[in-house]
Amino acid sequence: MFVINFAGKGLNMQIRSLVLSVSLFSALISCTALATGQDNARVPLDRLQALSNGQPVTPLPPSFSAQATKGIANDQLAMYLAGVIDSGEGQHWCVAASGLPPHDVNQQLLAELQRDLQQKKVAANANSAVQLASKLKVLFPCK
């Protein structure tokens, strides 16, 4: 970690750097922590929903602010969604061709999943990757 000191702002930059480092590390190790139940490769929709509500999958020290906790949950969610999107990009769906920023794509996907959960078209314990893949094929078909 490096510290840049601009007229007394070194401590502020050091804290930001620490929070960023913890966020990235936490997001990286959360890949295994995301799964629940017997099948470690499966992430149920309710776990994905908890992430979107700002509840990270990795335990955080109580000294973390609510804003930092929510930021880590958002990072974990974005990384999971990016992994699912990358798994079939250009073969089964073409998100990149849409020109939408990743945040907008993620919001569309989560809104569709939330709608399916509310309409009981899918169970809360359904495999989120499978559900996301079906939404990606419909929302971002390759032409």
TrEMBL record:
Q: Which UniProt keywords apply?
A: Signal
InterPro entries recorded: Rap1a
Rap1a immunity protein domain: residues covered: 71-142
Q: Where is the signal peptide?
A: 1-35
The organism's superkingdom is given as Bacteria
User: Pfam families from the entry?
Assistant: Rap1a
This chain's protein is named Rap1a immunity protein domain-containing protein
Which organism does this sequence originate in?
Answer: Arsukibacterium ikkense
